[in-house]
């Protein structure tokens, strides 16, 4: 498969440990996407992971019945930033220095990191997409808001390309990107499904504000295969909706 570098200067860095917003170094081998440490057993692997099985507001979900509202809008104010691209053993993660953030009704959330799942964790009316990106944001109180961006197979995605080209092949590896511009990844229509959910990886912490963009963007088959060459399947199955409702603006 071909990989193109579109003007991005990439410096390979050897990093001994991975880090994510919620996973601490050293626990990366404790859970996976296949038995016996797969999603069905996450809740039993560690007491800290118990919400993965006992939680009632877990993510992802299959978005089916939605309540229309005027109020839910997603205000984004992203800016280009340098970024670190790391392979943390579960996914590829992009961590900008200062990429701006989003404003929800509940306030402002700063962009922390973005990572990918294949296939998409979110389902829309029972449909799975080949890839999703989770844009993770945090407010000063430490509360999380995630924007989920769905990808469908189609045209080459030039914004994604420098990230894909920089992906370290081995867990623990990282690389530096001169610039990543999150805004360029987004569709023109920022209408989103909103619901309260959780982290989709252990410890499955709840209270996460999910904003699933209703409009998908495209990537080429070669780009999808480049990610899947590293992570063929890293998606948690959909979880019961229980008492929750999903709202959509517009
Ligand atoms: Zn995710």
Automatic annotation (TrEMBL):
Top-rank taxon: Bacteria
Domain Alpha-carbonic anhydrase: start-end pairs: 29-250
SMART domains named in the record: Carb_anhydrase (SM01057)
Catalytic activity: hydrogencarbonate + H(+) = CO2 + H2O
GO molecular function, one term: zinc ion binding
Annotated keywords: Lyase, Metal-binding, Signal, Zinc
SUPFAM superfamilies linked to this entry: Carbonic anhydrase
Signal peptide boundaries: 1-23
EC number, UniProt record: 4.2.1.1
Family: Belongs to the alpha-carbonic anhydrase family.
Protein name, UniProt field: carbonic anhydrase
């Amino acid at each position: 498969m071909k990989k193109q570098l579109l003007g991005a200067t990439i410096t390979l860095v050897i990093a001994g440990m991975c880090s994510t917003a919620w996973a601490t170094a050293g626990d990366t081998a404790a859970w996976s996407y296949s038995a016996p440490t797969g999603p069905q057993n996450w809740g039993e692997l560690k007491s800290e992971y118990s919400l993965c099985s006992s939680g009632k507001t877990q993510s992802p979900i299959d978005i089916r019945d939605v309540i229309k509202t005027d109020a839910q809008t997603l205000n984004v104010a992203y800016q280009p930033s340098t970024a670190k691209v790391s392979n943390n053993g579960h996914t590829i993660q992009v961590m900008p220095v200062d990429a701006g953030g989003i404003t929800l009704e509940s306030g402002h959330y700063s962009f922390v990191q973005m990572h990918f799942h294949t296939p998409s964790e979110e389902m829309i009316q029972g449909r799975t997409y080949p890839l999703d990106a989770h844009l993770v944001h945090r407010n000063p109180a430490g509360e999380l808001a995630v924007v989920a961006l769905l990808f469908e197979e189609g045209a080459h995605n030039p914004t994604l390309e420098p990230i894909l080209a920089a992906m370290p092949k081995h867990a623990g590896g990282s690389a530096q990107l001169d610039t990543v511009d999150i805004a360029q990844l987004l569709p023109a229509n920022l209408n989103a499904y909103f619901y309260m959910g959780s982290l989709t990886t252990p410890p499955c912490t709840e209270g996460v504000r999910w904003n699933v963009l209703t409009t998908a963007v495209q990537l080429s088959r070669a780009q999808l295969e480049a990610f899947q060459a590293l992570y063929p399947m890293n998606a948690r199955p959909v979880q019961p909706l229980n008492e929750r409702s999903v709202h959509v603006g517009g």
